[in-house]
Specification:
308 residues; two-stranded antiparallel sheet; 13 helices
Length: 308
């Protein structure tokens, strides 16, 4: 019967999850959605006003208007996870936006993962989210594209568009097979996706620039990769070192197990030796009587009786 190496051996699901960046992104987006609504529920229980709840959450997680951005630069890195869109008194909590993004993420992300490997999907996604956010902010310097004060934008649109652009760049003639004898060309799928994405933005200039920034990053990433320039290696190097510092190494585990076994064996040998010594003292009592014992033998017998 085969034995597992040790208790830290990864399960089949954990190995699959570790090597599937698309699944990791879907889990991240879903977790952010749950965290958002959990926070929303807690604040409602604490009887915060509804408008104050939404403003507090959205203003700290999503992209604000340009004048407010300098006070909340971190939103450039968080807005891609939270599918919230607030304009004035209207707030879209983003379930259908998140759901549709997950479908497109699976569609283009799985293809890209198959073509270039899972290690490039997540860096490409987050690079594109950041570049898209920068384009969104720069676009607001154009007066006609300025976002109204108090408006906030969140969502993974820039990252999804980047995956689509990267897929077209690397495999423009690819076909999605929906049945053995029925397939849809990649360009048709991307065209439908692009139209839906522009409809979602409402053709607002700043939002169009956001998805344009994502698409540009997707194209640049694949172009650099084809030229032998991997801009994701440093990211995995950093995260790998961080992860390894929290993950017990197999050699360390074996060393600890070996040391533990040595200690247990030493204790066990000591117990056996003590038991033999007690047996010898009892034999002496049977032959010569208790008064024949030395002070040390009496102490050993007394200690053994207390332990029993």
């Amino acid at each position: 019967m085969p034995k597992t190496s040790n208790k830290y051996s990864a399960s089949p699901f954990s190995r699959y999850y570790k090597d599937n960046a698309v699944l990791q992104l879907i889990v991240a987006l879903g977790s952010a959605f749950v965290i958002f609504h959990f926070t929303l529920t807690v604040m409602r229980i604490m009887e915060y006003p509804e408008i104050e709840i939404l403003q507090n959450i959205t203003s700290n997680t999503t992209l604000p208007a340009l004048p407010e951005f300098k006070y909340k630069v971190w939103t450039l890195f968080t807005y891609g996870l939270f599918h919230i869109k607030q304009t004035g008194v209207f707030t879209d909590l983003g379930f259908w936006s998140m759901f549709s993004n997950m479908v497109w993420l699976y569609c283009f992300g799985s293809l890209l993962q198959m073509m270039i490997g899972f290690r490039h999907v997540m860096p490409l996604f987050f690079y594109s989210v950041i570049v898209g956010g920068i384009f969104y902010m720069l676009a607001q310097y154009v007066p006609a594209w300025a976002v109204a004060p108090g408006a906030h934008l969140g969502g993974a649109q820039a990252g999804i568009v980047a995956l689509a652009a990267a897929s077209v760049t690397i495999a423009p003639n690819y076909r999605f097979y929906l049945a053995p004898h029925f397939s849809v060309p990649m360009m048709v799928v991307v065209s439908v996706f692009g139209v839906l994405m522009m409809l979602y933005t409402g053709f607002a200039g700043a939002q169009l620039m956001l998805i344009s920034g994502g698409a540009l990053m997707g194209f640049i990433y694949i172009t650099l990769l084809r030229g032998g320039k991997d801009i994701s290696s440093w990211l995995y190097s950093v995260t790998g070192k961080i992860g390894s510092s929290f993950t017990p190494k197999e050699d360390a585990y074996k060393k600890h197990t070996h040391k533990r076994s040595d200690v247990l064996n030493s204790v066990q040998k000591k117990q056996v030796a003590e038991e033999q010594r007690v047996d010898e003292i009892l034999d002496k009592i049977n032959k010569k009587g208790y008064d024949s014992l030395t002070k040390e033998e009496k102490d050993i017998l007394l200690r053994a009786s207390k332990e029993n």
